[in-house]
């Protein structure tokens, strides 16, 4: 039995595939959905968010929680281990807001700062997406290049080219240290020299937090498992530890191989 909280199956892959240059990533979800459609012993329920009572009364023996992760909106990331000061009136978004109604409230032709402290692909993609919507976009990153980790995937030159052609202003080796109403304060990562610039909104691409409340709440009711016939509850993928899409795929595969073993472990 597969329950999906929303309408669309595929999790973060389905959402991110709507962003510039990532459409082909949809195949990661499409392949698995195609395979699932061929199994008569798989039941799929959409728009079926589960709470602990739902899970315990479902009549299943083994439960997998794969509820994903959400992007932090407090600035915590590689550069800053503590939240950065954010004015209560400041407009602060995360990559999760690229897929909802939050962008519509900004209006058009706004000046937006994207703080890329993730250094993988998404910071650059978000900046390009916003520029394509007509906004004036500035990408700030503590790294020497936008989406610097893509140097390992041989994409970094293409990323810089796409951003520059889209009109994105790249400010490398700088970090966001405070966000106010209509302004953002950055500093040089080498000298500490500060600069305040206008920003109608700031998008923080920093760190993610696991969405593990369902897993935690089920764990707090461990004494009820036997009565409901529940043998095991496992948390996998981004809900256990936010990582890459490949890591999430592997987590699902690994669970399938190990869930009925006596003592699955990490050795």
**Major sheet characteristics:** 5 strands, parallel
Physical arrangement of strands within the biggest beta sheet: 5-12-6-7-8
Shape: elongated
How much of the sequence lies in strands comes to: 15-25%
What's the helical proportion of residues? 10-25%
Instruction: Write the element-wise H/E pattern from the N-terminal end onward.
Output: EHHEHEEEEHEHEEEEEEHEH
Radius of gyration, rounded? Answer: 21 Å
Distance between the termini: 29 Å
Helix tally?
7
Structural class: alpha/beta
Q: How many strands in all?
A: 14
Unreliable segments of 5+ consecutive residues: none
Mean pLDDT: 94
Key attributes of the depicted protein:
alpha/beta; 5-stranded parallel β-sheet; 22% strand; 3-stranded antiparallel β-sheet; 267 residues; elongated
Describe the protein.
The chain is α/β, with parallel strands linked by helices. The longest helix has 14 residues, at 245-258. Strand 7, helix 5 (156-165) and strand 8 form a beta-alpha-beta unit. The strands form five sheets. The protein has a five-stranded parallel β-sheet with strand order 5-12-6-7-8, covered by helices on one side. Helix content is 24%, strand content 22%. The chain contains seven helices and 14 strands. The radius of gyration is 21 Å and the shape is elongated.
Layout of SSEs?
Elements: E1 2-3, H1 11-16, H2 27-36, E2 44-45, H3 52-56, E3 62-65, E4 69-71, E5 92-93, E6 111-116, H4 122-132, E7 136-141, H5 156-165, E8 169-172, E9 174-180, E10 183-188, E11 194-198, E12 201-205, E13 208-210, H6 213-219, E14 232-235, H7 245-258
Parallel strand pairs: 1-2, 3-14, 5-12, 6-7, 6-12, 7-8
Antiparallel strand pairs: 4-13, 9-10, 10-11
Helix pairs in contact: 4-5
């Amino acid at each position: 039995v597969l329950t999906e909280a929303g309408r669309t199956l595929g999790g973060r892959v389905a959402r991110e595939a709507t962003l510039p240059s990532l459409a082909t990533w949809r195949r990661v979800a499409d392949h698995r959905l195609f395979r699932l459609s061929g199994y008569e012993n798989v039941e799929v329920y959409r728009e079926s968010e589960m709470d602990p009572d739902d899970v315990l009364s479902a009549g299943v023996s083994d439960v997998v929680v794969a509820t994903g992760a959400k992007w932090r909106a407090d600035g915590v990331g590689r550069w800053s281990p503590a939240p950065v000061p954010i004015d209560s009136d400041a407009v602060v978004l995360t990559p999760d807001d690229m897929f909802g109604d939050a962008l519509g409230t900004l209006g058009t032709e706004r000046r937006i700062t994207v703080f890329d402290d993730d250094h993988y692909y998404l910071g650059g993609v978000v900046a390009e997406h916003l520029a394509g919507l007509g906004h004036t976009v500035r990408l700030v990153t503590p790294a020497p290049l936008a989406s610097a980790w893509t140097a390992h995937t041989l994409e970094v030159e293409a990323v810089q080219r796409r951003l520059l052609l889209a009109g994105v202003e790249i400010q490398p080796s700088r970090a966001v240290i405070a966000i106010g109403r209509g302004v953002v304060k950055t500093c040089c990562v080498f000298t500490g020299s500060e600069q305040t610039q206008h920003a109608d909104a700031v998008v923080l691409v920093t760190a993610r937090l696991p969405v593990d409340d369902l897993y935690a709440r089920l764990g707090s009711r461990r004494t009820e498992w036997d009565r409901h016939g529940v043998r095991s509850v496992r948390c996998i993928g981004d809900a256990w530890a936010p990582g890459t899409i490949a890591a999430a795929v592997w987590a699902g595969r690994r669970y399938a191989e190990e869930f009925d073993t006596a003592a699955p472990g990490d050795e």
